[in-house]
Design a protein that fits this description.
Its EC number is 3.1.21.2. It holds the Pfam family AP_endonuc_2. One of its GO terms (molecular function) is phosphoric diester hydrolase activity. With 281 residues, the chain is of the alpha/beta class. The chain has a single domain, classed as TIM Barrel, CATH 3.20.20.150. The protein has nine helices and ten strands. The strands form two sheets. The chain has an eight-stranded parallel beta barrel with strand order 1-2-3-4-5-6-7-10, surrounded by four helices. Strands 8-9 form a two-stranded antiparallel ribbon. Helix 1 runs parallel beside helix 2 and helix 2 packs across helix 3. The protein is globular, with a radius of gyration of 18 Å.
Length: 281
């Protein structure tokens, strides 16, 4: 298994990979640039290359995550152009660092168009534009939403359908967030078997590249995206253990996006998840 957490790149991309090793992780997630801005970053390719080499030598896997303002359903011309340029920049950085890809939340349309499918059309247009000339190995990794705001991106059907309608679906994979799945009601904590069967039938798990492993501060169906440390939330360690030990997840890298509030922080939590993963079915 691969387990790790979100790591800061404040001291550089290579430094982030070394932090991961010190924490006892074998994978990590990072923001390739300022998480609160869509500004395109001019980055050190030497630093990125050092990061890539360190990860290859130590068996470490990484993914990047787009900044918070990223929305694939933007409608305004200037906002859309800034978003597209930003995600392309994220892909370039992730590719240089040797990362699997860049996690992007499923879009949220905030306009007033009467057609309920309009937001999905905007999202498909955005992804096609982002990937039109992309020749790198880093993928776009679409993440399921928790349901705050509108209710786009809560189901496996939506994720699979959007991918299937793209000009280059081979450049897109999925990232499953356990807190989001629980908050949206997709996974209640009691129905993982049903979720797995549906995902296998749809072909979702074939393209699953990463799992955001998070407990939830709020109950299932709350539509509230508030993460908790593993075993310290409403999902609980046993339910999360069932999920990560399942046949469709056990080979997928797990990335903690938790507060790290337990004694010992994320190093302790990584060790706990390793123990959880090893428990018998």
């Amino acid at each position: 298994m691969h387990i790790g957490c979100h790591v800061s790149v404040r001291q550089g991309y290579a430094a982030a990979s070394r932090i991961t090793k010190r924490l006892g992780g074998t994978c990590y997630q990072y923001f390739p640039k300022n998480p609160r801005s869509l500004t395109v970053k001019s980055f050190s390719r030497q630093d990125a290359l050092e990061c890539r080499h360190f990860c290859e030598e130590n068996g470490i896997i990484s993914i990047a995550h787009t900044p918070y303002p990223t929305n694939l359903c933007t409608e305004g011309k200037e906002e859309h152009a800034a978003m597209v340029a930003s995600v392309r920049n994220d892909l370039e950085i992730a590719d240089a660092c040797g990362s699997i890809g860049v996690v992007v939340h499923f879009g949220q349309y905030k306009g007033n168009h009467q057609d309920p499918l309009y937001g999905y059309q905007l999202m498909i247009r955005s992804l096609n534009e982002i990937l039109e000339d992309w020749t790198g190995k880093a993928l776009i990794l679409l993440e399921n939403n928790a349901g705050q705001g509108n209710k786009m991106g809560l189901t496996l059907e939506e994720l699979v359908q959007v991918r299937s309608l793209l000009n280059k679906p081979e450049l897109v994979g999925f990232c499953l967030d356990t807190c989001h799945a629980f908050a949206s009601g997709l996974w209640t904590g009691e129905n993982w078997g049903d979720v797995q069967k549906k995902g296998e039938k749809l072909g979702y798990f074939t393209h699953l590249k990463a799992v955001h492993l998070n407990d939830s501060r709020y109950p299932t169906g709350s539509y509230r995206d508030r993460h908790a440390d593993i075993g310290w939330g409403e999902i609980g360690a046993e339910r999360l253990g069932e999920l990560i030990r399942s046949t469709v997840i056990r080979e997928v890298p797990l990335f903690l996006e938790t507060p790290g509030e337990r004694p010992g922080g994320h190093a302790s939590e990584i060790a706990f998840v390793k123990q959880l993963f090893g428990r018998p079915q």
